[in-house]
Amino acid sequence: CRLHTVGLFTSLSVLKSGMQCVKLPISVRVEINLLLLAVTGLALVTRLYGIHFPRAVVFDEVYYGQFLSLYMKQVFFIDESGPPFGHMVLALGAYLGGFDGNFVWNRIGAEYTSNVPVWSLRVIPALAGSFCIPLAYLLVVELGYSHFSALGACMLLLMENSLIVQSRFMLLESVLIFFLLLAVLSYLHFHKARNSSFRWFWLMICGVSCACGIGVKYMGMFTYFLLLGLTAVHTWQLIGDRTLSYVMVQVLVRFLALVVLPVIMYIGFFYVHLTLLYRSGPHDQMMSSAFQASLEGGLARITQGQPLDVALGSQVTLRTVSSKPVPCWLHSHKVNYPIRYENGRGSSHQQQVTCYPFKDVNNWWIIKDPGRHTLVVSSPPRPVRHGDIIQLLHGMTSRYLNTHDVAAPMSPHSQEVSGYIDFNVSMPAQNLWRVDIVNRESDREIWKTILSEVRLVHVNTSAVLKLSGASLPEWGFKQLEVVGDKIYKGYQQSGMWNVEEHRYGRSQEQKERELELKSPTHSDIKRNLTFMAKFLELIHNYLCAHICMLFSFLRSPAQRKAFGVVILAVLCSVYVSYHNLSPLTYGQPALSSDELAALRWRESWDILLRKR
């Protein structure tokens, strides 16, 4: 009983001492910046008032609206001008407004129909543009200027008509500016709040904002690089001033927040994009056959259930892996090359072989065993493997794919590719091709439908079957030129082919075979492409598009030289930095005391000096 009494008195004394620490009544003090509140209110009014007017397509709404409709219908698309996050932000407004995607975005000025929620389509850019004003106010204050200066900057932005206009329509500029301002403001908060518990929270917000800005438009990279540069400078100032463990923690946290987190979010944008858009659409042709086959409908409907292993006797269509200048299929038709070209050069006058950018019955070829006359698949099928020698017979004209030492029509440095016709002249058939599976995992890998990237190497001349990209004249129906390239080196997508449509041939006679080629394929094998494979293919297309855009701006020799000088200067600076610091990296050559002292760029770099 005595123990319980002592415990009770102890508890009461603790409670009493705790109550004495708490001052009653409990109150909460809140500071409201009325000036900031007023500026935000004015921004909302100027950006949101009357955004449903005009009820018609304005400027780039005709461009972004097409992607909105595709999002609403979950149809795949690719916008080579930028990543998908900005389109998803606009699509969110359309989804919340109940837009069904049924509107024809064909011209600026077209009146919106009743099913288009104009206010919902425009409200997210308007809100982003409105919140840019208070962000600008806070940014100016954070830079150390007075509230009066911040108010002046806000008024300039508040009444800037160009910013108002781009915020009131379904455009991405205001969304981009919002995320970039938030990123810069968050980093300044992080840098100045050295002893605050919210410091790392602001760094995370900075990383998230940078990822969102880049996800809207690639122009956000400039602000991102600016912040990375500031981070590098501020981190550099820590080196030598603190312990090594402290510096390592600081560097690691900054790296995770400003590099790893944005990369994960950037990949996440594409994951959501590809998860939402699972149906086949008009942009499929820009992607590989494997990518197209992973989408619902379209090529997936055509190729569903095709045999996976290519065998001797298989009937196939061969699509170039490259999508430049356009995706196309190996093709031939009953028209010969002209005896003499416009420039006076002669040809073999054999059957034309081209690359045709549309599906056609003349795209079908038969994989034939050179040692046998049969054109049907045996039972069991004899698969074609890496390194096998085959012949390719055109299904509709029964001409063998051939190349020889005759100059191609548009690319005289390469060999002509033709469907061989025996004219009884001294021009023997050269129609043997070696199968080279580029993405193989073993030396005897089987040629796979859609999945295998194949290089066809001519046995006699070692030339590679390749799409040159040049268009043939009228006599070639403006189709794309296919050549045999003898100086082919490295990995070039223009020299890679994959089997897109595939069936096991059952007809030996020409008439029966023609009917078979015009009939749909049968069988049941399902293929799925992983997200990372799709992501890497999309990134490859983005990079190709932007590199081509860059070189389109560098048209004059002077521009190219200036660009080359800039690149050379950057590379030289990297080399100089590497060369000067390499003795510290490798420990040799040995440095004198003066040379070592010259590398001591900061007074706190005592680690470079041996103290006795």
UniProtKB/TrEMBL annotation:
Predominant place of localization: endoplasmic reticulum
Membrane is among the record's keywords: yes
EC number: 2.4.1.109
A GO molecular-function annotation: dolichyl-phosphate-mannose-protein mannosyltransferase activity
Subcellular locations according to the entry: Endoplasmic reticulum membrane
MIR domain span: 307-370, 381-438, 443-502
CDD domains registered for this protein in UniProt: beta-trefoil_MIR_POMT1 (cd23281)
GO cellular component: endoplasmic reticulum membrane
Chloroplast among keywords: no
Membrane-spanning ranges: 32-50, 84-105, 117-137, 171-188, 200-216, 251-278, 560-578
Matching InterPro entries: ArnT-like_N, MIR_dom_sf, MIR_motif, PMT-like
Keywords attached to this entry: Endoplasmic reticulum, Glycosyltransferase, Membrane, Repeat, Transferase, Transmembrane, Transmembrane helix
First-tier enzyme category under EC: transferase
Membrane topology (UniProt): Multi-pass membrane protein
Stored SMART domains: MIR
UniProt record similarity statement: Belongs to the glycosyltransferase 39 family.
Protein name: Protein O-mannosyl-transferase 1
